Amino acid sequence: MTHLPPIRGEHLPTALSLAADGMPALPLRAGKVPFGNCPRCTGNACGGRPNMKTPGPCTCPAPCHGWAAATTDPDILNSPEWAKAWREAAAVAYHPGGAGLTVVDLDNDDAIAWAHANLPATRTVHTTRGEHWIYRGVMPSANAVRPGVDIKSTMAYARWLGPGTGTITALPDAVRDLFVKQPAPVRPMAAPTPAGGGACPHRTPAYLARGIAMAEQRITEAASAVHATVYGAFLAVLSTHGRCGCLTEAHTERLFAAAQAKGESARHCADAWANALTRLGM
Hints:
Helix 6 runs antiparallel to helix 7, helix 6 (about 205-220) runs parallel beside helix 8 and helix 7 (about 225-240) packs across helix 9. By secondary structure, this protein is α+β, with helices and mostly antiparallel strands. Helices cover about 35% and strands about 15% of the residues. Strands 4, 5, 6, 7, 8 and 10 form a six-stranded mixed β-sheet that branches. The chain has a four-stranded antiparallel β-sheet with strand order 2-1-3-9.
């Protein structure tokens, strides 16, 4: 049986119930994305970053910084500062890693068939397009570890779609290995330059410019699986230039702009960039 999300008026009670069970919860707005930072935190002016385990020195009581806003504290969830978000919420999410869990997000029938053939059975939750397989244990999160498969654990959130069916089993090595194995090879890392360096040590500046342009084109021409394409493009750029000191904010802004032109949110761009950094150990 498919477990449907609660109606809008029940989002806060659902979050409180999750928190009571030790699952850090947060509200999601339409589009399954977190609420934007509050005015004092706009542009992470407070010093917080949504891709950090600790969101920075921000002490804002509002649900800021994406997944990092997730909490099990009922006083915070019930606070006046969160009331507006709950009134506008379209869904509830939780931080799997904060609950000691890993979610294998299977986006289509092929991914589900692969999971049945390669992963041990565990608790299953039906989603709009596929299934969440929930395991006990934590690991780094990553997008597009194989076609139609994302991993959501630390530094990520998963939409709450009900308790699911089956018994939660231990996180298997077959899932942990997905974080290491990528479907597409990446270029070897370049040796880092000394501190203060800015020139690319292994190619001319034109090589970087060409790489950024190719990544933009790859994203712009994506006809499907846009999020996976964005992640792959970010990963390719970072694997080649991420350690040599030549990437600037202007380069990342170009990549983010190309992704957002294809419908990706700023939050999705930040998450994809953070996952690529994590994948590369940067």
